[in-house]
From TrEMBL, chains A, B:
It catalyses: (1S,2R)-1-C-(indol-3-yl)glycerol 3-phosphate + L-serine = D-glyceraldehyde 3-phosphate + L-tryptophan + H2O. The lineage of its organism: Bacteria, Bacillati, Actinomycetota, Actinomycetes, Streptosporangiales. This is Tryptophan synthase alpha chain. It is an enzyme of class 4 (lyase). It comes from Microbispora amethystogenes. SUPFAM superfamilies: Ribulose-phoshate binding barrel. The alpha subunit is responsible for the aldol cleavage of indoleglycerol phosphate to indole and glyceraldehyde 3-phosphate. Pathway: Amino-acid biosynthesis; L-tryptophan biosynthesis; L-tryptophan from chorismate: step 5/5.
From TrEMBL, chains C, D:
The gene is trpB. It comes from Microbispora amethystogenes. It comes from the Bacteria. The beta subunit is responsible for the synthesis of L-tryptophan from indole and L-serine. Tetramer of two alpha and two beta chains. This is Tryptophan synthase beta chain. Keywords: Amino-acid biosynthesis, Aromatic amino acid biosynthesis, Lyase, Pyridoxal phosphate, Tryptophan biosynthesis.
Amino acid sequence: MTYPRTNPAVAAGAVERHLRARRDVGRGLLMPYVTGGITPGWTDYLRAFAAAGADAIEVGLPFSDPTLDGVTIQQASDAALARGASTRRILADLSELSGLPDLGVPLVVSTYYNLVLHDGPEAFCAALRRAGVGGLIVPDLPVHEADELTGVAEGAGIELVLLASPATPQPRLAEISARSRGFVYAVSLMGTTGERAALAASAAELTGRIRRVTDRPVLLGFGISTPDQARGARRHADGVVVGAAVMRRVLDGAGPDDLRAFLAPLRQALDQECDRPR
Amino acid sequence: MTYPRTNPAVAAGAVERHLRARRDVGRGLLMPYVTGGITPGWTDYLRAFAAAGADAIEVGLPFSDPTLDGVTIQQASDAALARGASTRRILADLSELSGLPDLGVPLVVSTYYNLVLHDGPEAFCAALRRAGVGGLIVPDLPVHEADELTGVAEGAGIELVLLASPATPQPRLAEISARSRGFVYAVSLMGTTGERAALAASAAELTGRIRRVTDRPVLLGFGISTPDQARGARRHADGVVVGAAVMRRVLDGAGPDDLRAFLAPLRQALDQECDRPR
Amino acid sequence: MREVPLRREPVPPDGVMGGPPARGRFGEYGGRYAPESLVEACREVGEAFREAWADPGFRGALARLLAVHAGRPTPLTPALRLSEELGVRLYLKREDLTHTGSHKINNVLGQALLATRMGRRRLIAETGAGQHGVATATAAALLGLEATVFMGERDIERQALNVFRMRMLGAEVVPVITGSRTLKDATSEAMRHWVGATGDSHYCIGSVVGPDPYPWMVRELQRVIGDEARAQCAAELRTGVPDHVVACVGGGSNAAGTFAGFADTPARLVGVEAEGGAGAARGRLGVLHGCRSLFLQDGDGQITQAHSIAAGLDYPGVGPEHAHLRDLGRARYVTVTDDEAVRAAVRLARTEGIVPALESAHALAWVIRAAGDGELPAGSTVLMTLSGRGDKDVSTLKELL
Amino acid sequence: MREVPLRREPVPPDGVMGGPPARGRFGEYGGRYAPESLVEACREVGEAFREAWADPGFRGALARLLAVHAGRPTPLTPALRLSEELGVRLYLKREDLTHTGSHKINNVLGQALLATRMGRRRLIAETGAGQHGVATATAAALLGLEATVFMGERDIERQALNVFRMRMLGAEVVPVITGSRTLKDATSEAMRHWVGATGDSHYCIGSVVGPDPYPWMVRELQRVIGDEARAQCAAELRTGVPDHVVACVGGGSNAAGTFAGFADTPARLVGVEAEGGAGAARGRLGVLHGCRSLFLQDGDGQITQAHSIAAGLDYPGVGPEHAHLRDLGRARYVTVTDDEAVRAAVRLARTEGIVPALESAHALAWVIRAAGDGELPAGSTVLMTLSGRGDKDVSTLKELL
Ligand SMILES: Cc1ncc(COP(=O)(O)O)c(C=O)c1O
Ligand SMILES: Cc1ncc(COP(=O)(O)O)c(C=O)c1O
């Protein structure tokens, strides 16, 4: 099977180049998530992620009203805000790491659109850039509302990742895939973030539909927490995002080493299943 | 001043003859009231009243809903009912006294019309007669509803006393006075039974208006409790009914002797003021 | 739903539920058994109301108040889902949608307007659960009158929110501490108070009880329910008139107002009483609160306390005209238990999205029972007056369910 | 009352508060900022509503439900005694007289009927004080749908009776234990739940907020308030149109529905917000619950919790169309304190016999203030929407007064 080509006029950004390169050598991609500012030394989690073999790292900027998140990430957001976390402080913490060069993996920030609008898209993207962030996920900014941000992000060198959902009709999926940068975030199921017992059937179907319209890397997210699920996901997608499973452990007191231990079997599972996804 | 004559065709009953006789010798009439069955030996109060110089005695048959009585007589009714008082038992107690011959004063029963209807007017009046009762007062049976009872009472030898109120228009007052038996019960004020600080101005006005249409004895009731008030009443009427003032004392534990002592100055006041009422 | 052939019975003689009854009598019931001190006041009310009722100006003013303030006309709601379940065609006359939430407002606005016309500056009222008290306080505020509401101490405790509501509306609420400290005693106390206040105050009785002219006057003021429903049925039903007309009966005002619209039709009239307050179904002849009617009494002729989960049905008597309709056979009176009423309330909530007053739920409970045991043949049309909304009963229900 | 010369200003350009806005935008506000998983569901709702709204069959069915079940039209009540005191002519649009006691039912019946048309079997709703929840439970029962209502745990404690009422109507009430455990969080939770239930469930939002088509759809469903009032004013007022049209603003649905009837007239439109929940008057541009509008936020862009004695005004944002009307200058938005609202509620109770919802009391408080300080010239005519009745607030008031 060959992938439809993405418009070659648009050169891939750093995040996408990084992910494509790894995918193209047959590696299953792993993007763990952490809520920024969740603990005093929270950036140590990023180092642990990198050490565990992450291919990208998602950092959530906590928002008061995380309407697409399940309880775990809601609690993490509340906890981080209660500690005084804010966009400004979290980006300041990231600046000290200076992103990719230091960790060796790209940083992708995720947050709700209100925080983007609060500073204004320009200022917000510029701040991300200064902090060494390469990508941005905004779950409540669907493609048809994204115009205001896409150009600005592009200009600032921030890759705006768009989400695709099992409910997205095919023509719209093509548009999302075409306009997404970095990768396409495939929401595995009709639901919020949070651990689930098994990989939803909708995951395969959605990934297949995305494949038909793009060769951009596709990461499956929402509900993936076990090596088995990762293996399953890898059969269809280029990799996985692991969020709630990480944050539940963090909320339960896990330190960076615990998380490294938690991610190791996931990494392994992704590596074992080395057939290229169909 | 001469009294208009009552229709001579209707011969006065025993109660009325008794009261007329006493009035005509210039005596101020005193009718104390007691709630039947209020205490185990309640008929002792009747003897005390007689001994204190009562000219007639009013015995209340307690009713669950005494809508024309103030708190004192309401409480007395409740207390008597709680003790198990009923028309039947109270009349049985009275039978033992056999009324006038024994006490030397006529007995007048007062109660609400529901109790009359309950037994039926015939049975009720017959029972009164058997118990030696001479008169009957039914505060919620106004003259225009009295037809059903007047003939029956008359037939049973019970004098049905009608009430007149300050609000009663003159033509109606004439009808009440004509149809009342025993005496005319002049309600001294627009209100319920119960002690008052002073004799209401309406008392004189009403008595005057009754006088213009009848020479039947007129007793003022409602709110009369002190010798001063009795003296005042005597200036207009032929005498007084004293109810709540008695019953408050009974409720407070007064015995027959206490009541005799209470009635003595009232008796005296009525005797002192011996000018015939104008 | 199946259609059944129309069975129609002869219409009763004219004049039933008509103009002012002679000497205030409905057959052997009614009358003016008031203390002499109130007889003149009652006469004045009667005369004033007769005049007012014949005066298009008064009628117009009242109609406007009912429309712009109380929200009349109230709808006739076909209870579609419940009808389907029951196999009858049930229509609800929605008095629950009036301002203050029950039919009581119809009567009170009329009497308040009359009081103004008579130059009175204050309304006196009795209340049990507080519906009539709130309605009276409301009408008084609207017309700039004072209001004094008598309420049994036990009811004051049980209905604290309605007490507050009355006070918020500017009314004085007087606790009644005598007798059973409930509605019966509040009524007695209101009458006692009126004796001393006839000059400037109008006694605004809350149902078709009390001395003449109240039973007639209150029925006339409530007949707007029946008149509206009659016209609405004419527009809505193939037969024009429903087969059965049902209403709950406390004192009997919502039933009287409803029946008045159908007295001259072949509709069967059914009054539903609370098992523990069944004056019409189980009362004995008596006199209370100024009128001759049927009352619950003990063997000694003492009035007994009614007991119903519906505070508005917690009255030991029934209006004299109902006693008369019963004797005539023009209406019949049935009873329903607390439990049946509660279940009917829940059923209406679940099927029609209406939480009825527990009083009104009694009427519905009978409809449900009668549809079940064939007393209401399948396909019959039933008009039921939903006398009030259940908001006031929610805490009672909450404890039960 | 003195008559004042009519001052009329030019009518604003056509199209304000008209048909469906392009791309769901009201100026720069609105839009469909929904998670991708809900975008298709929103599109379906929008398309279905557009079709339904153009279908006389749907319109007729809704109009009948509103009439026979909800009690429409609601009256326009001249507040005569209060007008006299204030020196203005105040008319009240009586949404308090609708079934369930507030304007919320207008919207909910429309959405429930739409859900049926779309083949949905369940309604999802958020609620704060419980008014929208009760209305949703009611509409669901009426149409045979299921209902799941999300309610913050703190509100569940504060509004136990409304919770019971919803359950009695057959709805499932789900406690929300996240965030501030109030309306904002209940809304978030309802949206989260919808993501997993779009197949069989319709999310019935309670105000003119949320992703397109909700702000427009809910305004259209509420415009019955304004349309009726417009016709009633035409019949009642010499000038045909009132000088001022006033309504309280939580999310803004009763105000939007009211304003919609007068947007093309010279009437001045005033939205009254709670001092502690003044999204329109003091909010900053943001995105929440699917739409771009004005929200109360802290310096970091976090949404702050609103605080109002009126639970229905306890929302940190405002519907996008209000933000737009504000920018246009077509409406203005003012604020009122808890204290002013409580005093206004008591005053309306005392002068007109109406205990208003505390939300509605905000609108009145502004009228009282503005009549006092000359902002409303003597003799001006004011139409105010009385969005709901105060029964739900009586226990709150009881603690205060
Ligand atoms: C809602 C409701 N229905 C019925 C009644 C019973 O009264 P009536 O029989 O006079 O209609 C009451 C009395 O309070 C009531 O509040
Ligand atoms: C009576 C009442 N008025 C007003 C509101 C505020 O909502 P909106 O601004 O959407 O009309 C509410 C909300 O619950 C309400 O219950």
